């Protein structure tokens, strides 16, 4: 089945002819006999016993996402960070070394450096990640994990997924990729040799800005092991209602993502030629510096992009942001609505100007999530806000 058909039908079970399945909003499941519950415990990965483990509504979403990504199994989590922390903890032990891209999603970076490093003596090497040699040089005898995010949601730089996965495999190192930006429609890291594909389902997979969730997808043995340990024992379970909302979201997923792509192309090209814009960071642009790699490992591009205003005058930068009418100011991305966020809002609180610059981001950097509104209306909104500044 092609993705469009798969997401409309696959894995859904509809009792009594219901066109949409009901929510299994229950904490436990009952059994006819001692032997039946005994058998369920012997096959707990395929049984419904208690919703901190498996739940039928959650499972329907997991099956759809695994099929879409070309993975054997998926495990949903109540947030993308839940999926990231479970994946990392599964792959490492105290004293191990991790190689990660330096523009990793901020809280994932904090989890490694401010939590695991002091608590478990984890060693971490951050690399820019554009060249495979950076990973090769960073690997140590105790490296157990390589953590990628391609494209990164901060500066939109790519890593060569197949090459890094092959390198890691040759040394027995596990690989995780945050594939949230490209989505499981446009980039298939598991087919490129990655062990764990992670998504924040709070972005395009949810798509309506009403669900926070995450997922890990990979080989059955690895996912089962995470399901039984980090998922069940840490105990942050996926809520059946949120899973049911994701089922709703997945039915329109391909249509939405393709429209985000079409709108983003128009907006990126508009910004790219505007005299008050210094640069646009968007892998779908013709002059994107890693264009060849982008087309080699992705079949499409979504709606999150960065751009830099020419002005470095903070009052003008604030005026630009505040005078947008359709782009609402907010974190996150991937929903139906267009959003704007200035990375400086967070970075100025947490980092020194030098650290800020080392990340390759400046005061005038903006990040926009291009939504599903009419692209021409979005351009007009950006245009009027740009007209208002020097
Ligand atoms: C690239 C990326 N990865 C992971 C996450 C974390 O996902 P969640 O917010 O669902 O925990 C986010 C959230 O903004 C993100 O942007």
Automatic annotation (TrEMBL):
Pfam families: Cys_Met_Meta_PP (PF01053). The keyword Nuclease does not apply. GO terms for biological process: transsulfuration. It comes from the Bacteria. The modification N6-(pyridoxal phosphate)lysine is found at residue 203. One of its GO terms (molecular function) is pyridoxal phosphate binding. Keywords: Lyase, Pyridoxal phosphate. Its cofactor is pyridoxal 5'-phosphate. One of its GO terms (cellular component) is cytoplasm. The keyword Disulfide bond does not apply. Belongs to the trans-sulfuration enzymes family. PANTHER family: CYSTATHIONINE GAMMA-LYASE, TRANS-SULFURATION ENZYME FAMILY MEMBER. This is Cystathionine gamma-lyase.
